[in-house]
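> example.struct
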C-alpha cells in the first residue's frame, strides 16, 4: 500500500530570549500561545507552541528558546524559510501592521503565481506571508490582536536548501506521498494530498552552500501530519525499507512522534493529528500555565525555578 503524510503538522525553530519570542508571535503576529511547556529532553528549556485558537495541526509553529546558541548557519539540509498563508487581500493590512511595529520586510515577490511578503522574526528566523484564497480551515483566535479576517491560515509550505535535492525528492515521492508540481527560479515544488497551502514543500539545490547548522533563528525540525499511530507505523516501516533510520514512536503527550533525517540531513518528524492540545488543559485556557508531561510533574519545582517568568503581551486597544 502506498504510504503518505498529509501536510505540515508543525515546524519547530530555535529562538533567543523567550519573552521577545512571545511578544512577537502573540503580540505582533496575533497567534495564540496554545501550550507553554518545556523541551521534554532538556526540561530547563521552554517549549512554546503558537497556533490558531484550537491548536489545529498545520497552524503550529513552536520554539525552543536557546539564547546562548550562536546564530543559525543557513545551509543545505535545512529549512531556510517558514512561509505562512494569509487570506487573499490581507497583504496591505500586514505590511502596515509590521511597519508600524518596526518589523522590516523584504520586497514583495511572486512565487508560483502567489504574492509573498518575506520578513524575519526578532531572532532572525526567515518567515513570509503568502496571500492565498485557499488555506487551512482554522479557528481564528477570538482574543487575538489581529482581526479574524486577517489572521494567518497556518503554515503555507516549507523551503529547504539541499546539496542534491534529487535524493530528498525520491523520499518525498516514494514514501511520503508527494508529487512534483512545478519549478521556478530553481525551486522545485512538491505537493501532497493534491497540494495547496499547508501541503507544499519547496526544494532548491545549493551546491556551494555549507551544511546548515542549528542556531538561534533557525528551524530545528519539520513535522508532517499522519492520521494516527497506525498510519505513523506504516510510514515508519516504509522509511526503514528505503534505508532511513527513524526513531521508535515517542509519546509527546499531545501527539505521537517519529523522527528521522531526510537524505539531505534535515530533521523531519511524523506527528499524529491527535490527541491534541486540549488533552490536559481546557480549550478556553490553553497556554496560560506551565504544562508538563505527566512524567515530568515530579520535577516541577526544579523546572519552574530554572525558567524565566514570562508575561503575556497586552491586548491592544483597537487602532
Ligand atoms: Zn516536533
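> example.seq
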Amino acid at each position: 500500500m502506498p504510504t503518505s503524510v498529509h501536510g505540515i503538522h508543525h515546524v519547530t525553530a530555535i529562538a533567543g530570549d523567550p519573552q521577545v519570542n512571545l511578544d512577537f508571535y502573540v503580540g505582533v503576529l496575533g497567534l495564540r500561545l496554545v501550550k507553554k511547556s518545556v523541551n521534554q529532553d532538556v526540561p530547563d528549556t521552554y517549549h512554546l507552541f503558537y497556533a490558531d485558537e484550537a491548536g489545529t495541526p498545520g497552524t503550529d509553529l513552536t520554539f525552543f528558546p536557546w539564547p546562548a546558541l550562536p546564530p543559525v548557519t543557513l545551509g543545505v539540509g535545512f529549512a531556510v524559510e517558514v512561509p505562512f498563508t494569509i487570506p487573499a487581500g490581507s497583504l496591505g493590512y500586514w505590511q502596515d501592521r509590521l511597519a508600524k511595529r518596526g518589523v522590516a520586510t523584504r520586497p514583495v515577490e511572486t512565487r508560483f503565481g502567489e504574492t509573498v511578503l518575506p520578513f524575519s522574526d526578532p531572532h532572525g528566523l526567515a518567515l513570509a506571508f503568502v496571500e492565498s484564497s485557499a488555506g487551512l480551515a482554522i479557528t481564528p483566535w477570538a482574543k487575538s490582536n489581529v482581526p479574524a479576517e486577517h489572521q494567518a491560515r497556518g503554515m503555507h509550505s516549507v523551503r529547504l536548501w539541499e546539496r542534491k535535492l534529487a535524493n530528498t525528492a525520491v523520499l518525498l515521492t516514494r514514501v511520503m506521498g508527494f508529487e512534483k508540481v512545478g519549478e521556478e527560479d530553481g525551486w522545485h515544488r512538491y505537493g501532497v494530498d493534491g497540494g495547496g497551502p499547508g501541503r507544499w514543500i519547496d526544494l532548491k539545490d545549493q551546491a556551494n552552500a555549507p551544511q546548515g547548522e542549528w542556531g538561534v533563528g533557525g528551524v530545528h525540525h519539520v513535522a508532517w501530519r499522519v492520521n494516527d499511530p497506525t498510519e505513523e507505523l506504516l510510514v515508519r516501516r516504509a522509511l526503514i525499507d528505503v534505508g532511513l533510520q527513524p526513531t521508535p514512536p515517542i509519546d509527546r503527550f499531545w501527539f505521537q512522534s517519529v523522527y528521522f533525517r531526510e537524505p539531505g540531513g534535515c530533521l523531519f518528524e511524523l506527528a499524529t493529528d491527535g490527541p491534541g492540545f486540549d488533552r490536559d488543559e481546557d480549550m478556553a485556557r490553553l497556554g496560560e500555565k506551565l504544562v508538563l508531561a505527566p512524567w515530568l510533574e515530579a520535577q516541577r519545582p526544579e523546572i519552574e525555578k530554572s525558567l524565566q517568568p514570562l508575561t503575556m503581551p497586552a491586548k491592544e486597544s483597537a487602532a
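> remarks
The first strand starts at residue 8 and ends at 15.
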